[in-house]
Amino acid sequence: MTAPVVASTRSELAALLGDARRDGRRIGLVPTMGALHEGHASLMRVAREQVGPDGEVVVSVFVNPLQFGAGEDLDRYPRTLAADVDLAAREGVDIVFAPSVEEVYPGGGPQVTLDPGPLGTILEGRTRPGHFAGMLIVVAKLFGLVRPDVAVFGQKDYQQLALIRRMAEDLCLGIEVVGAPTQREQDGLALSSRNRYLDPEERREAVHLSRALFAARADAAYGAQAALDAARAELRRAASVDVDYLVVTAADLGELPEPVPAGTEARILVAARVGSTRLIDNMSLTIGSPTNPGTTS
């Protein structure tokens, strides 16, 4: 197991990637905020598959202050660089880019920013104003610094993934954005760096989020409303889960057609606080089926 090279400055990163670019080798990027877990490890494996054994896999570790709002957990967000490098080494990562805030934002915050557009105003964007603008800025900066052929993001942050894909397409960045499946604990809870904030009782309560999504998937054959009702029933069993939103949308996060044709691909998304910790999750649904269409709402 060879340890990845850790770069902390733009010039170090550029020097490390120079040979790969000159040789025409593919470069894959996995942007993270650190506190890495098995979900991140799965992204690294996808990146390696995308670039091949001779390609370069870069993992960025940067807690981006611009995507944290007032009262959010910027100060307590876990910083575990040594452990992150160890996990990256286990997955065969070539470079860990771990810059300081000053390196990413020299001279302070950027004067030119990105507007997430209508997709950035719903769901997480409504609850966390400014979050997606800050996220897109740092992803755009990482794309410019690494200049990857492919970038890999987890589907757990589904709205984020959709916005990054839209940015890459709208700005003609020429980067393939790959969404990797959500990784889960044995009981179904989506892996998240924030799970470590949960005490044992909160951890037991948190699993109701994923159970709600699986219940929705099981009833989606009977329609979108049936899926939503099944999820709500499961969440009512949780005494200390404060739901922010629970919605069924089209796969692109737009509104479902009315009536909903059988076989329509959809998404159910949930955000909730468990104690003081805010968690999100989502899952794909197929509304109705040719053999059992159920309702169409």
- Give the overall silhouette: globular
Strand order of the largest sheet: 1-4-3-2-5-6
Report the top-level CATH class of the largest domain.
Alpha Beta
Question: How many distinct helices?
Answer: 9
Helix-strand makeup class: alpha/beta
Would you kindly provide a written description of the structure presented here, covering whatever features stand out?
39% of the residues are buried. This protein has helices at 10-23, 38-51, 81-90, 101-104, 124-127, 131-146, 158-170, 200-219, 224-235; strands spanning 5-7, 27-32, 56-61, 95-97, 150-154, 176-180, 241-250, 264-274, 277-287. The longest helix has 20 residues, at 200-219. The radius of gyration is 20 Å and the shape is globular. A six-stranded parallel beta sheet has the order 1-4-3-2-5-6, with helices on both faces. It has a three-stranded antiparallel beta sheet with strand order 7-8-9, covered by helices on one side. It has two domains: 5-180, HUPs (Rossmann fold), CATH 3.40.50; 193-287, Pantoate--beta-alanine Ligase, Chain: A,domain 2. With 297 residues, it is an alpha/beta fold. Residues 290-297 have low confidence and may be disordered.
